[in-house]
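Section 5.1 Outputs to date
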Amino acid sequence: MTGRLDTLEKSGLVRRIRPAEDRRRVDVELTDDGHRRWTEAMRWIGVAEARLIAPLDAADRAVLAALLKRMLLQAETG
């Protein structure tokens, strides 16, 4: 994790904040550029997802959503 954060920090996408009251803790937040790039990436993910499900009609999408929900619940509860 440290290596990944180092790379993101050197790229100007995140910044580390060390609270004065607890120097063991390190908070990480997106910079303005990091937030802009994350937002753009999420937009492109939305475009890709829309293309993936475009061939499915409403009934197929409902089935897919139900199956994905079951899979997610299984993954979350172990």
